[in-house]
Design goal:
Layout (H helix, E strand, L loop, with lengths): L1 H45 L15 H37 L4 E4 L4 E5 L4 H4 L6 E2 L7 H11 L5 E7 L5 E9 L11 E7 L1 H36 L6 H33 L8 E2 L1 H18 L3 E5 L7 E2 L2 H18 L5 E8 L8 E6 L22 H6 L6 H11 L3 E7 L3 E8 L3 H9 L1
Parallel strand pairs: 8-10
Antiparallel strand pairs: 1-2, 1-6, 2-3, 4-5, 5-6, 7-9, 10-11, 11-13, 12-13
Length: 441
């Protein structure tokens, strides 16, 4: 019994000793932790946002001094990371603002959270997040946005906006990493205005169709006459003479059409390059008039010129300027009244054409209805197709004039009044040497 009591007493003493040691260890650990925390707070206070606080390091405790190098490295790394993050964020903001095309960021709820200045034209100011459907109401566009937000890699779609003017836009959606710096945006939308491209494609298609039609008609006539001459009219001298005359007329029409097409293509190819030479309009116009005297005599039309003697040189290419006035005078002779007069006047412009030299060609024809005036410079546009073809027109004359004037950085205007006649005016910049001489004088 005594032995059992002694064993129990020894066990209790051992347990007490172990508990005492544990308590002492715990106290030491707590005290060390508190000292370490206090030291960390001291160093943290010293490395706060104010760099001048480092001067207080001399009053730190030994524990704080011990962890100071690690805290310094941590502080330096944190500041570098923060600086890089701010630089990257500023660069991203600059890129978004500099993109010329509309750029829109949307979040998971399909709300617009950010947009650049170019996008304001389409969605208005992005002051507060709002649903994309409130700014761009197009089913195909919204379906593409939903698909990308649901996890699809990317989606592109074309759609049309009808207000304030009709435009065709190509939208491209792509997912981006969710970032607080981007206000929670998870997808990016870029818009490209492809209206000009679509119109050019349509104009090209119309051009090919019209050119093919213009060539098809005289070719069909030639084939028909050739077959007739080889068949029933093989020995008919009168029919042969008559058919050959018509065939020559149709062949000439095709030649003029091909020449005009080649001329128009060449002018359009160089339209972005302004000419640099100087041309005297007076002598040039006299040369063009002499070349058209026979054609004018056939319709008993007189060409009257009233040009000032001091008409300055213009900046341009002589052959192209001659083509302008040849086309304008030819139209005036063709569409003016027989036994009438075509007048050519000139001078120095004022107002929008201030300082530019201008020439105007006026006929005394039937005039042109006002609804046709805006389209007169379109390729193959004719008011009276039958009459135009009968008079040898290709439908490209004024289109060529427009592109030459554009290349010369000039201005073209057409005024017409039914029953009175039509006036076409061309304004051209003065030659550089002429302008410098006027300024020095």
């Amino acid at each position: 019994m005594l032995r059992e009591h002694l064993f129990e007493a020894g066990a209790l003493g051992l347990v007490s000793a172990i508990l005492g040691i544990a308590v002492v260890f715990a106290l030491v650990t707590v005290i060390s932790s508190r000292r370490l925390a206090a030291a960390a707070r001291q160093v943290a206070e010293a490395f706060g946002p104010d760099p001048a606080a480092i001067d207080r390091l001399g009053r730190l405790s030994p524990s704080a001094h011990a962890i100071r190098p690690a805290m310094q490295r941590l502080d330096r790394a944190w500041r570098q990371h923060a600086g890089r993050t701010e630089t990257q964020l500023a660069a991203a903001e600059s890129v978004i603002a500099a993109v010329p095309d509309p750029l829109i960021l949307i979040d998971r709820q399909r709300r617009i959270v950010r947009a650049n200045a170019a996008a304001a034209e389409f969605i208005g100011p992005a002051a507060e997040p709002r649903d994309l459907a409130g700014a761009l109401r197009n089913p195909a566009l919204l379906a593409a946005a939903d698909a990308v937000l649901a996890g699809e890699a990317a989606r592109s779609v074309e759609f049309t906006l009808s207000v304030p003017v009709e435009r065709v836009l190509r939208a491209h959606f792509a997912p981006i990493a969710d970032s607080p710096a981007l206000d929670g945006a998870t997808a990016i939308l870029m818009l490209h205005d492809v209206t000009t491209l679509k119109r050019s494609e349509q104009m090209r298609a119309d051009f090919i169709a019209n050119a093919g039609h213009e060539l098809k008609t005289p070719l069909a006539s030639l084939v028909g006459f050739i077959e007739t001459l080889l068949g029933p009219a093989h020995d008919d001298a009168d029919a042969r003479e008559r058919f050959l005359g018509i065939m020559r007329q149709q062949a000439g029409r095709m030649t003029r059409l091909v020449d005009d097409l080649l001329s128009l293509s060449r002018i359009e190819l160089n339209e972005h390059l302004a000419p640099t030479g100087g041309v005297d309009l007076g002598p040039l116009l006299e040369e063009v008039v002499r070349g058209l005297e026979l054609r004018a005599a056939e319709r008993h039309v007189h060409i009257a010129r009233t040009l000032p003697p001091d008409l300055p040189q213009v900046q341009g290419e002589r052959d192209e300027l001659a083509q302008i006035f040849q086309n304008l005078l030819d139209n005036a002779i063709k569409y003016g009244r027989p036994n009438g007069e075509v007048t050519v006047t000139g001078g120095i412009g004022h107002g929008p054409t201030d300082g530019m030299a201008w020439l105007a060609v006026a006929d005394r024809g039937d005039g042109i209805p006002s609804e046709h005036l805006p389209r007169l410079t379109e390729r193959f546009y004719r008011i009276d197709t039958g009459r135009s073809r009968e008079l040898g027109g290709t439908g490209l004359g004024l289109a060529i004039v427009k592109h030459i004037v554009n290349r010369h950085r000039g201005q073209l205007s057409i005024d017409s009044e039914e029953g009175i006649g039509t006036t076409v005016s061309v304004s051209l910049p003065q030659a550089v040497t002429q302008t410098l001489a006027l300024q020095s004088g």
